[in-house]
């Protein structure tokens, strides 16, 4: 497996945009990923970060580290977002590769914690995240917030 940081490898911008869009975007949010990833290539700013996990030339997963994941707790950052592993690759702890890179880059960016919002229970706890509280999304739903010290 090979980890690609889009910020460190800007030649992957277009592949990253298409992959994140295919996994996370709705028709209404396609431009959100394109705009954010396109404008993330700035070595003077530690956020946002976008990652691809590759098996040879095939993208098998992704994740990001952003300033806010559409959640009410804007006092907390950075946030892990958009973690995804292709179904046929699940069960091999490949998500941990993305999580460790996100933690490392957040720490190198001067942050002490990394947050995420999810409805999954049991997965992130295996990788050092602890339940922190509840946050609210602009579309009226809520999510569990997790935190890890990095």
Can you walk me through this structure?
- By secondary structure, this protein is of the alpha+beta class.
- It has helices at residues 13-24, 30-38, 94-108; strands at residues 2-5, 49-55, 58-66, 79-85, 113-118, 130-136, 142-149.
- A 4-stranded antiparallel sheet has the order 1-2-3-4, with helices on both faces. Strands 5-7-6 form a 3-stranded antiparallel sheet.
- Helix 1 (13-24) runs antiparallel to helix 2.
- The radius of gyration is 15 Å and the shape is globular.
- The model has no long low-confidence stretch (mean pLDDT 95).
Reconstruct the topology from this structure.
Blueprint: E1 2-5, H1 13-24, H2 30-38, E2 49-55, E3 58-66, E4 79-85, H3 94-108, E5 113-118, E6 130-136, E7 142-149
Antiparallel strand pairs: 1-2, 2-3, 3-4, 5-7, 6-7
Helix pairs in contact: 1-2
Helical content (DSSP H or I, runs of 4+): 10-25%
Which class best fits the helix and strand makeup? alpha+beta
Q: Which stretches are low in confidence, meaning pLDDT under 50 for 5 or more residues running?
A: none
The coarse silhouette is: globular
| Strand portion | 25-35%
Number of strands: 7
Oligomer: single chain
Helix count, DSSP H or I runs of 4 or more residues: 3
Note the main sheet: 4 strands, antiparallel
- Our Rg estimate from Cα atoms comes to 15 Å
Give the helices and strands as they follow along the chain. Answer: EHHEEEHEEE
Mean residue pLDDT: 95
Distance between the termini: 23 Å
The neighbouring-strand order within the major sheet is 1-2-3-4
């Amino acid at each position: 497996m090979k980890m690609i940081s889009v910020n460190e490898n800007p030649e992957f911008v277009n592949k990253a945009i298409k992959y994140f869009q295919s996994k996370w975007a709705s028709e209404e949010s396609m431009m959100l990923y394109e705009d954010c990833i396109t404008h993330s290539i700035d070595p003077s700013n530690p956020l946002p970060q976008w990652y691809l996990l590759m098996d040879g030339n095939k993208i098998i997963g992704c994740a990001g580290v952003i300033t806010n994941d559409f959640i009410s707790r804007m006092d907390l950052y950075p946030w892990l977002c958009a973690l995804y592993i292709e179904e046929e690759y699940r069960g091999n702890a490949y998500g941990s590769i993305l999580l460790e890179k996100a933690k490392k880059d957040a720490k190198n960016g001067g942050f002490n914690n990394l947050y995420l919002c999810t409805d999954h229970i049991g997965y992130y706890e295996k990788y050092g995240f602890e339940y922190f509280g509840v946050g609210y999304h602009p579309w009226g739903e809520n999510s569990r917030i997790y935190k890890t010290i990095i």
